[in-house]
Design brief:
The complex is a heterodimer of chains A (117) and B (117). Chain A is mainly β. Chain A has strands at 3-5, 10-14, 19-21, 24-26, 33-39, 46-52, 59-61, 64-69, 74-79, 88-95, 105-107, 111-116. Chain B has 117 residues and is mainly β. The chains are: A mainly beta (117), B mainly beta (117).
Chain lengths: 117, 117
């Protein structure tokens, strides 16, 4: 069975601080995809990034960066110079990889990030 | 282009009544998923549709839940004889097969918030 663990339930930072959200996953699949989604107060899940199991290159997009390490089964997310607009719940997710094409997501419990002005 | 749309955005019903929730995926997206987000269980996969193939219902919590997808597009999730534990946000997501990697990314609608009294 697949599992995603986000040990940090809630993080509070002051604007301009850097913050890292942790994600640890478990799977027996050799091919899989990892995701981060953002859920702002409006409730809609917003896609941030996708990573496949064969690509361990770190990625940077503006103030966001992601560190994928298969050796520790981790896929951590760092926000540099946080802003109030970054306040949201962030979910890490792992897809299965069925022959039917199904890519159902297993989500972590989410990390609520509060950025104070 | 337009994103995934869901209706109604909110639904209040009495225990024992049936409800129907609608999802309109992104145009051209042949894969469609339903998830449930509840306080106790987090985000859970419910059902998967791919084109005209038989749906994967492995995530449905009971036989009171069913879903259909007409014409490979709009989907309806039906909950019969609703119970208080069915109160949750029901999220729909769609994805597009074809481009490597892109089929793995699910784009979510705003959800339907269901409250069973």
């Amino acid at each position: 069975a697949q599992k995603v663990t986000q040990a940090q339930t809630e993080i509070s930072v002051v604007e301009k601080e850097d913050v890292t959200l942790d994600c640890v996953y478990e799977t027996r699949d050799t091919t899989y995809y990892l995701f981060w989604y953002k859920q702002p107060p409006s409730g809609e899940l917003v896609f941030l990034i996708r990573r496949n199991s064969f690509d361990e290159q770190n990625e940077i997009s503006g103030r966001y960066s992601w560190n994928f390490q298969k050796s520790t089964s981790s896929f951590n997310f760092t926000i540099t110079a946080s802003q109030v607009v970054d306040s949201a719940v962030y979910f890490c997710a792992l897809s299965d990889y069925m022959d039917t094409g199904r890519r159902a997501l297993t989500f972590g419990s989410g990390t609520r990030l509060q950025v104070q002005p | 282009g337009a994103g995934v749309s869901q209706s109604p955005s909110n639904k209040v019903t009495e225990k024992g009544k049936d409800v129907e929730l609608r999802c309109d995926p992104i145009s051209g997206h042949t894969a469609l998923y339903w998830y449930r987000q509840s306080l106790g269980q987090g985000l859970e996969f419910l059902i998967y549709f791919q084109g005209n193939s038989a749906p994967d219902k492995s995530g449905l919590p009971s036989d009171r839940f069913s879903a259909e997808r007409t014409g490979g597009s709009v989907s309806t999730l039906t909950i019969q004889r609703t119970q208080q534990e069915d109160s949750a946000v029901y999220l729909c997501a769609s994805s597009r097969p074809g481009l490597a990697g892109e089929q793995e990314t699910q784009y979510f609608g705003p959800g339907t918030r269901l409250l069973v009294l």
